[in-house]
Design goal:
The chain is an alpha/beta fold. It has a single domain, classed as 3-Layer(aba) Sandwich (Rossmann fold). About 35% of the residues lie in helices and about 15% in strands. It has a nine-stranded mixed sheet with strand order 1-9-8-7-6-4-5-3-2, sandwiched between helices. Helix 3 links the parallel strand 6 and strand 7. It starts with a strand and ends in a 5-residue tail after the last helix.
Length: about 325
Amino acid sequence: MLGIAALAPLAAAGGATGQVASALDYAIYAAAPTKVDIGGRRIALRCAGTGGPTVVLDTGLGGWSIHWWLVQPVLAKRVRTCACDRAGFGDSDPPPGPQTVGDVARDLHAALRAAREKPPYVLVGQSLGGVEVRLFTQRWRHEVAGMVLVDSSFADQVTVKRALPGWDAAADRKKRDDNLDCARRAAAPSFKPGNDAYARCAFPPPDGAPAVIAATWPHYFTPSYFTSSQPLSDSLSGTRFLRADKLKLGVMPLVVLTGLNRPAPARGQEQYMKRWLAIWQERHEALARMSSRGVHRIVADSGHNIQFDQPQAVLAAIDQVLDQLGAEAR
């Protein structure tokens, strides 16, 4: 049954939700990830844990595998988990050219096969990653047992955004120009913390990030990080991938999480943001209807990055899907 509920922190008996990661759990991030060849270039995966089905974590645009540091170490105590770096991000090689979300879905599938991480999978996609895991499911439905969408993008959201009254086209153009400028600056040996260019282009790790993550964080702001972002964002325009928002998933366990605590991007855009969040919630409700077992939850006190703001909500959603599947250790 489709339902909408505000989600407070939960504790699921036998699940991962009530657990908290310790310093020892973060050891996964001290070691280099596994890099698998997918036809002349390498995709990085961080996998941990045992038991199935394997949970695959796909973060949003601008993120990479360690962005799941509040989720993966806890989840790995229950099942096998793998977090992937899309091409051009994290420890993966740059893509051969501009990529779409469809290309990333193919890369993810190829990487899992190359790493011999066997299906079935529970796919967890945040923001842009939500579109990518739906495209994965569209193409390899027989390999997907369940899905969690964490404040997921939708496949034509750029087109919808641009059509809203109050869309700031000038700010969009500036963002594109800034990405190109940052790609150039990131190629310089002086591009590192303490440098003005780094301060302009990069962003710090979230508050509370463990030392092992904070120490490696600056390493990931490479030229390809900045050049790879815009084509992926642009691929969420038109109707090319819209079928991924209208999948017929039957009785597949599905949880859709929404974070609405998001300020307007600039002063004077409050009404624009109000309209946008109304559409955002409506489209998430539609995504939950892809399965007869789909559930939509609005996560209290969370913005877009629910895995940082309310990681327990993400863990609870994954636990729910695993419980519905009767997950057992292999």
